[in-house]
Specification:
single chain, six-stranded mixed sheet
């Protein structure tokens, strides 16, 4: 199984909290779901101590790429199976889950275009 997400990691932490994220990752790994994560621009000179913020974590089945710094993403977007999930910023606090094969396929196609053009971590 493959899950794709697009977000600013720090926005996701603000929205979900570290405990939820750690639990979610643990459950995803148990289910052997691979994650491709497109993130907003790399933070230069930023050393992270949180394992779930790191670029590459093979043990948690995650591959990361970075979007150009001109691209700003404030929402959290996921695509998996026939489902897309959109979560707004903390300011707005709403989420939408849509189960639609055509919408999911379209978002996955757009994700692939962005993924192919995104930068691998240094």
């Amino acid at each position: 199984k493959l899950c794709r997400d697009l977000a600013s990691v720090h926005s996701v932490i603000e929205l979900m909290g570290e405990q939820f994220i750690a639990r979610y990752i643990s459950e995803r790994v148990k289910q052997k779901v691979v994650l491709q994560s497109l993130r907003t621009a790399e933070l230069k000179n930023h050393k992270t101590t949180n394992w779930f913020l790191r670029d590459e974590n093979k043990e948690v089945l995650r591959e990361v790429r970075y979007l150009d710094k001109s691209v700003q993403i404030d929402a959290f977007i996921k695509a998996y199976d026939d489902t897309i999930m959109l979560i707004s910023s903390k300011k707005e606090m709403f989420a939408v889950v849509i189960e639609s094969p055509p919408l999911a396929q379209s978002l996955k196609a757009l994700f692939k275009i962005a993924w192919d053009g995104a930068k691998k971590p240094n």
